Amino acid sequence: MIVEQRTYDFHPGKLPDFFRLYEETGARVLQMRVLGNLLGYFTTEIGGLNQSVHLWGYTSLDDRADRRAALMREDLWRDFLGQITPLLQKQESKILLPNDFSPIRRLD
User: Fold this and answer.
1) What is the 3-state secondary structure (H, E, C) of the chain?
2) Mean pLDDT of the 20-38 span
3) What's the chain's average pLDDT?
4) Residue 75 Cα to chain centre, angstroms
5) Of 20, 21, 38, 47, which residue is least crowded by CB atoms under 10 Å?
């Protein structure tokens, strides 16, 4: 298993707008269906503020690439991205590899 950590930094005050759009447009339901294994979705309270951090599990980098490509083929998703882009300051994606003793490896 690999884990993708996606961190989005929003302009101050825009995080609620993001979550409203995520729910109202149906993007959340679509993303969960296409990407699958959501491990967690968070907002920051201490440290860098105005952030959303989400973790997605994949069986491999190829699985991730296939699922992300399938998501980008969806008109609804592309429309959603157009709506949220003005809210964003920065995006970051990291691929995390669980160590042998990591409890998340049991999810394989």
Assistant:
1) CEEEEEEEEECCCCHHHHHHHHHHCCHHHHHHHHHCCEEEEEECCCCCCCEEEEEEEECCHHHHHHHHHHHHCCHHHHHHHHHHHHHEEEEEEEEECCCCCCHHHHHC
2) 96
3) 95
4) 18
5) 47
41: confidence class by pLDDT, cuts 50, 70, 90: very high
Strand partners, 57: 3
Distance set, CA 106 to CA 6, 98, 100 (Å): 22, 10, 10
Query: Could you tell me what percent of the chain has a pLDDT over 70?
Result: 97
Tokens of 101: 């003793």
- In the prediction, which pLDDT does 75 show? 98
Please name the residue that has the structure tokens 């399938």.
70
Q: Distance of CA 41 to CAs 4, 62, 73, 75, 97, Å?
A: 12, 23, 23, 23, 18
**Which residue do the tokens 């989005």 mark?**
8
